[in-house]
Every structure is written in C-alpha cells, then in structure tokens.
Amino acid sequence: MLTGDPNFIKQLVQFDKDNISDRVLKKIGTYVVQSDFQPDIVGRVSLAAKSLCMWVRAMELYGRIYRVVEPKRQRLYAAEATLNEKQAQLQEAMDKLAEVSCACQLALYFMKLKCRLQTNLFYGSLCHLSPQLVLGTVFRNMSRQHRH
Prior knowledge:
- This protein has one domain.
- Helices cover 78% and strands 0% of the residues.
- The chain has 5 helices and no strands.
- The longest helix has 76 residues.
- The relative contact order is 0.06.
C-alpha cells in the first residue's frame, strides 16, 4: 500500500484538511476510538503504520476542532470588517468636526476682532489701519491660538 503509490507522501502533505467531509470524519472517527488504533500499539507492527496512525488521528482531531473554530473565525472576520468600517466613519466624522471647529474658531476670532475694531473706532483710537495690517494681525493671532 505505502510503496504502491509514488505520490502517497506528497498527497498526505498536500491533503486539504480544512475540507474534510462529515462522512470522512465520521468514518475515520470509528477507527480513532478503537483502543488498538494507538500509535504505540500500531508501531509494534510497523514504523510506517505508526506514522500513518498518528497522521490519521491528527487529521481527525483537526477536523473536529476546525468545525468548532471556523464558524467563530468567520464571525471574527465579519466583526473586524464592521469595526474597520465604523472606524473609517468615525475618522470621517472627526475630520469634519475638526473642520467645523476650525471654522468656529475663525468666526469667533473675527467677531472679537470686529468688536475691538468697532470699540477702537468708536473711541477714535484707530484712524488709519491698512487691510494688510489687520489681516496680518488676524493670522498671527490665529496661529498662536491654534498652537495652544
């Protein structure tokens, strides 16, 4: 059996353990529960049979565990996808909030400046201000406030 197929070992290595059918899992399960299907017992007859016994038992165990873990893994992937989507939405909302906050700060600053200018003009303190001087002052003060 083992020497008859030159690709036997390759087939074992490349075996698709994630897709063991229920029928196959049930069939090998009947062997695994037998008291004489233990690697040490089988190994008394043949070292190759011992290795094959170990492989069959490992595949049967993997198949049973995979059926429990895989649905949980799929739910995890779905939850991570939802989380990533929600985090992207949150970042978008935070970016918009930052824009609105900046616009509000700018509006507040201009309102305060307007009040100061009106007060100063009312009292005659400001006679000849150039627009460049006013805007330069506005942007300098804004950059100072933005740093704090």
